[in-house]
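Can't paste images in this forum, so I'm doing it all in text. The chain is below; anyone willing to post the predicted structure tokens underneath?
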Amino acid sequence: MNIAEIKKTTEQKMQKSVEAFKQELAKIRTGRAHPGLLDQVHVEYYGSMVPISQVANVTLLDARTISVQPWEKGMGPKIEKAIRESDLGLNPSAQGDLLRVPMPPLTEERRKELTKVVKHAGEEAKVAVRNLRRDANEQAKKLMKEKQITEDEERRSQDEIQKLTDRTVAEIDKLVAAKEAEILAI
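Text version of the structure:
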């Protein structure tokens, strides 16, 4: 493995960390409805647990209401129960085959809690990025000890990896700030 490969794999892993963080942020709900909100809710379907999106059509009715249309007749009550029992704090109502899932407005206290959750998730993402930086620097040091690269090349690679880390951390900070603004907006 050479320095270019180390940088490339480190950059790819850092991008994966950012993508995972974005997915984590998508799960944190604001006052607005979002079909992806129900992605982590699973329902029993012929003996196995599957995501709601695999047994029903999940769409938005309006900015604060998610519509869930089961594909099979008997699935409505099961889906309703699964949504009610999830930790999302949602209360679906059935209208024939269609389930309406209204988003309750967030209280000021809940908004502040959610911003803390967002900051915590951001810190975890930054720690993951810093761990990747440490691993890359250790690989470069190992190459230097094996006399495959010079000290100057090792130092230069550390500087480049640090710049990559700084860019990635700045991207995470931007995502955190944007999500906080979205949560605190009434």
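The chain is about 60% helix and 15% strand. Residues 18 and 129 are 9 Å apart (CA to CA).
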